[in-house]
């Protein structure tokens, strides 16, 4: 699936929820913590969505990956700080409502980490280098490859269902692979700048 705006990304929306919930937690008088701790937690939570947004707006996959790892690191920092507060809460009998809120916030941060990791893994396994690398030569090569793949796919589909070559292709998933390859090639030729493609089915929601 292709996105043109980072605000539409499920992972950015989850990161935004993380910061909103963090603000709500910090606004509670019962959340006992030093000023330095509160400032650091606020910055770490905000860093997750900001790094996703900045990486998305960059022109190469490597840059996007770098910012995704920064975002994931910030999500881990949030979880670490909240875990410290959980330990403190158990020792000093903080209100049950406050402990539940901290636990929920940790779950949101963990969800951010998983979604970012899934996206990063997909990008690492992709041969797409980013919009900056889509020059005329790459587009021409991609167009030619698309024609070849499309021709191969048509040949396979025109064979009778019982034909040995078609049955072998279906058993080995070759027809499905061809369809995926065509989809990837269309990305290079049709997507406008600053758009990114996600794996089929999207990223994990939790």
Element-level helix/strand string: EHHHHHHHE
Strand segment tally: 2
Give the CA-based shape.
elongated
Sketch the major β-sheet: 2 strands, antiparallel
CATH superfamily of the largest domain: 23S rRNA-intervening sequence
**CATH T-level fold name of the largest domain:** de novo design (two linked rop proteins)
Q: What is the typical, i.e. mean, pLDDT?
A: 79
Structural class from helices and strands? mainly alpha
Lateral arrangement of strands in the main beta sheet: 1-2
Which CATH class of the largest domain is shown? Mainly Alpha
Brief write-up:
The protein is about 70% helix and about 0% strand. By secondary structure, it is mainly alpha-helical.
Overview of this protein structure:
This protein is mainly alpha-helical and 206 residues long. It folds into two domains: 2-124, 23S rRNA-intervening sequence (de novo design (two linked rop proteins)), CATH 1.20.1440.60; 133-197. Helices cover 72% and strands 2% of the residues. It is built from seven helices and two strands. It has helices at residues 10-26, 35-57, 61-92, 96-124, 136-158, 164-171, 174-190, and strands at 2-3, 196-197. The chain has a two-stranded antiparallel sheet. The longest helix has 32 residues, at 61-92. It is elongated. It starts with a strand and ends in a 9-residue tail after the last strand. Mean pLDDT is 79; it is low at 176-194 and 199-206.
